[in-house]
Amino acid sequence: MRYELFYWPSIQGRGEYVRLALEEAGADYADVARTERGMSAMMKMMEAPKGMAPFAPPFLKAGKLVIGQTANILFYLGSRHGLAPKAEAGRLWVHQLQLTVTDFVLEIHDTHHPLGPSLYYQDQKGPAKKRTGEFWKDRVPKYLGYFERVLDSNGGHYLTGRRLTYADLSLFQIVEGLRYAFPRRMKTFERDIPGLVDLHDRIAARPNIKTYLASRRRIAFNEDGIFRHYRELDV
Amino acid sequence: MRYELFYWPSIQGRGEYVRLALEEAGADYADVARTERGMSAMMKMMEAPKGMAPFAPPFLKAGKLVIGQTANILFYLGSRHGLAPKAEAGRLWVHQLQLTVTDFVLEIHDTHHPLGPSLYYQDQKGPAKKRTGEFWKDRVPKYLGYFERVLDSNGGHYLTGRRLTYADLSLFQIVEGLRYAFPRRMKTFERDIPGLVDLHDRIAARPNIKTYLASRRRIAFNEDGIFRHYRELDV
After folding, report:
1. Does A101 share its domain with A37?
2. Which of A80, A104, A135 is the last residue in one of the domains?
3. In terms of Cα–Cα distance, which of A36, A54, A12 is closest to A225?
4. Cα separation of A89 and A97, whole Å?
5. Is B77 contained in some domain?
6. How many domains does chain B have?
């Protein structure tokens, strides 16, 4: 089956967690909004008069199914492509970790948009500076400290044990993104999360991921996405 | 099976979405942290040296399983208690709606904590005012307009059709909470969401929910929870 992924064509954003899973799995997919007339196809699906229209991208078309919400898409893909256990307990545990990543991603976004997504960054620079300070003082240590501890207590190889899951791929993206957005802060902080840095490096070296990252399918980080580099926030 | 719910004992918070599902289902459960020595039991589980400790409350103990993240708990409970379809497509669709509620709940929380959860409200009153303004101008219409449309296009009875799901219960709580936190703003806005208001009223009248709301098991809204009433934000 050829999947159709619908996501904004010019950013990694929340779609990137899905792209990484599809790429690692070697799945056949179209990144629809990046194809000709793809954007209008995506907008049309969001306006669908029928009752199952998604709230926002990303969403994935898998045969007749249309699945929205990043973590929900990964939940669907995971056990089909060897990126999550098949048994219920394991599936729920990986999903739980992914939902914690989701919460963290929203807090990352709020560092540059503390007054909400409807105002420009330029209109909230002061509050962004304060929120970013709190983020690095309290939230990064809390979230990444938690994932470091989970990784360590499960043997240090992957978050849930000896097999890679989509939650590991998402943490790879978190480390990549924080390095892009906050290179100076992250450099210091990485001393506290040696396990996650090692996990990041091992994932970057996996054949499918390595190929993907070097391809044009991987959109570069930029200041329209979740991870944004604003020098004044990286002190 | 007697479930054990672990959540902060003095607020509705994110635990309330789980409580409403358990109550509607007539499930047997203990609200552990509200029992004697319950708080220390909860803290102990979060410090579990084993690799499956949850990041934060709420979490649910179901036999040997420990399930964290509100939407994940509801996903688990839903199909077991007739609060979600059993078939995969339906389960994913209800879960997708719930994850959109989750996003909205975080934005509700950010109205009074735009600079982050680690500072007091008193230290971020100005930004809270701005964020709340944006929230009511853009975000409430976007989220509740979406749910109103989903409800309407599926027949107006419940979000996904003719049967109640846990996502309907969560929207009941959203209406309750917005009425508590922003009585003046909400009064005006309710004209735009007649379907959701009607859904709220029908859920409030369901026997199990009615009994629950009148019981001491229902914690009153207060200014430590997600929905907080600050007069200066409700203009």
Report:
1. no
2. A80
3. A12
4. 13
5. no
6. 1
The answer to whether residues B13 and B225 touch, using CB atoms and an 8 Å cutoff, is: yes
Average confidence score pLDDT of chain A: 96
Domain boundary among A11, A46, A80: A80
**C-beta atoms of B92 and A99 within 8 A:** no
Smallest Cβ–Cβ distance between B150 and the set A51, A106, A127 belongs to A51
Name the token pair of B33: 């942290």
Residues of A with Cβ-Cβ distance to B69 under 8 angstroms: 95-96, 99-100
User: Would you say residue A49 has pLDDT above 70?
Assistant: no
pLDDT tens digits, residue range B211-235? 999 999 999 999 999 999 999 999 8
CA distance B56 to A188: 26
pTM for the model stands at: 0.98
The domain of A59 spans 3-80
Amino acid A52: pLDDT = 86
Percent of chain B, pLDDT > 90?
Answer: 95
Give the CATH number of the domain where residue B115 resides: 1.20.1050.10
Q: Does A99 touch chain B (CB under 8 A)?
A: yes
Residue A151: closest C-alpha in chain B: B51
How many Å apart are CA B23 and CA B75, to the nearest integer? 16
Of B51, B96, B143, the CB nearest to A150: B51
**pLDDT tens-place string over residues A161-177:** 999 999 999 999 999 99
Q: Are residues A98 and A206 in the same domain?
A: yes
Reply yes or no on whether the pLDDT at B49 is more than 90: no
Dihedral sign, CA of A203, A206, A212, A214?
Answer: positive
**Using a CB-CB distance cutoff of 8 angstroms, which residues of chain B are in contact with residue A150?**
51-53
